[in-house]
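[agent] plan:
  1. take the single chain provided in the ticket
  2. run structure prediction with default settings
  3. attach structure tokens to the ticket
  4. add a short note for the reviewer (M.T.)
[agent] executing step 1
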Amino acid sequence: MNLNYLIKSTIAFVLLFSFSSFTPSNEKWVNLLDKNLSQWEVYQSFSFTNSFKGEQPKDESGNLIEPVGYNKNKSNVFTVEEVNGEPVLHITGEIYGCVFTKQEFENYHLTLKVKWGDKKWEPRIEKLKDSGLLYHSIGECGVDYWRSWMLSQEFQIMEGHMGDHWGIASSAIDVRAFIPEGNMNTVASQKQPFLPIGPGTGLDGFCLRSADYESPVGEWTTLELICFGDKSVRIVNGHVVMVLQNSRYMKDGKSIPLTKGKIQLQSEAAEVYFKDIRIKSIKELPEEYSRYFN
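[agent] step 2 finished; step 3 output follows
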């Protein structure tokens, strides 16, 4: 993220804003992670240099440097390790990019565990460790500012900011606002309006979560994402931290629904681990979460 991100995190009024499709008939949990990353593909753009600050870098002759590209996994940025008999995805963060699912998904409940490693890379040596869970991902990688990811909605994974919203490329969404002293479980918070975030709304595609529920350093944090239709709910260690609806993207000045797509996990200059990545289909938004949209 950039300086804007840190500045906005100090505002007094915080916003709670801001798939072939997967539809198994038995609605059971499906494990998305194995030792061979068989359900995922890889994309890498660039390592950070002084010439790579969001724009495609150039060599000494002024020629554009091409991204690493798809499924090359330079420097083994993405590996699966077996820890206590279970697969753990290790992302070093050294090169910007992502792993992304081969399948598209819609109407689902996704859960995973995440934990930080020790390494950081430029340009985030002096910044918070950063990654992200990107959902409703469509099109080609590299369309965003860092030339690394697909158009999508970002469930932020960042030290002290688990669950924030970030819009990738031209994505937009409406996020339920709340007063900082409020709580997602209070009636008053639930009755706050939804605010449109992203291109064409007058507000940048960024928003803070309701509160910080990240686990202590060295421990796993459980993230859950529930998506149904144009709605989504983000949950950190059992706490609802963001409620969003009207997921969409802009193309040629027109608003297009964005309700399904692939899932991306970011490599963003910080070492991070993921495990227990599971997903199941849902036929409706569970009642305990549908109330947030009333």
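[agent] step 4 note for reviewer: Residues 1-25 have pLDDT under 50 and may be disordered.
[agent] ticket updated
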